Amino acid sequence: TFFISRKPSLFNKYSSFKLVSKFESSIIGISISEKIQEIINKYAEKYQISETLLKALIKTESGFNPNAVSRKGAKGLMQLMPVHTKRHNADPFDVETNVKIGTGHLSYLLDKYGDLRLALAAYNAGEGAVDKYGGIPPYKETQQYVNKIMAMLGG
Predict the structure, then answer these.
(1) What are the tens digits of pLDDT across the range 63-121?
(2) CA triplet 142, 67, 69: central angle to 5 degrees?
(3) What is the distance, to the nearest Å, from the Cα of residue 89 to the centroid of all Cα atoms in its chain?
(4) How far is CA 77 from its chain centroid?
C-alpha cells in the first residue's frame, strides 16, 4: 500500500512526490541488514533518491548479495561495471563504496534523462543504448528490468 507524501523533506529526483510504502519489506520481499539499511539511508539522503527506489534496484540487480558477479562483470550490491569502480579506484565488493558509487551514478542518470524509466534503462543497458534508441532500448532484458522495478514502486 502506497501513499504520497507532499512534505518538502521527502521530495526527490525521480518524482515531485516520494512513494512511501507502509509495508516496504513486503514490496522488496527480503529483509536487509541494519548495516545495509543505514548505508542506503545515507546515500538516499545525500543524492535525494528514494530509499524504496534504491532497494528495488538493489534487489533487482543483486538480490542484496554484496558478492554478486554478473556474466558481464558487474559486481556487488548495485552491480557496478569495472568502468565505474576503476574510475574511483574502488572495491566493488565493499558495500558502502558500492552503494555510494551506484547511487551517485543513478543520480547522474536521473539528472541527465529527467525520467525514472529512462534512467533505469540507462543503468541497465548503458547511456549509449538509451541515447541511440531515444528511449528504452528494444532489449528484452532491459524492458523487463525497468518494468520489474517500476512494479515494485507501484507504477
Answers:
(1) 999 999 999 999 999 999 999 999 889 999 999 999 999 999 999 999 999 999 999 99
(2) 40
(3) 21
(4) 10
Phi, psi of 35 (to 5 degrees): -60, -50
pLDDT tens figures, 132-141: 999 999 999 9
Closest CA to 110 of 11, 6, 14, 12: 14
CA atoms within 13 A on the CB side of 82: 5
Q: Which residues contact 129 (CB under 8 A, 6 or more apart)?
A: 121, 122, 137, 139, 142
How far is the C-alpha of 138 from the C-alpha of 21, rounded, in Å?
A: 31
Residues with active-site annotation: 61
Cα dihedral across residues 29, 97, 36, 24: positive or negative: negative
- Please calculate the CA angle 41-114-100 and round it to the nearest 5 degrees: 30
User: Can you say whether the dihedral through the CA atoms of 109, 111, 113, 117 is positive or negative?
Assistant: positive
Q: How far apart are CA 82 and CA 126, in angstroms?
A: 13
C-alpha cell at 47: 543524492
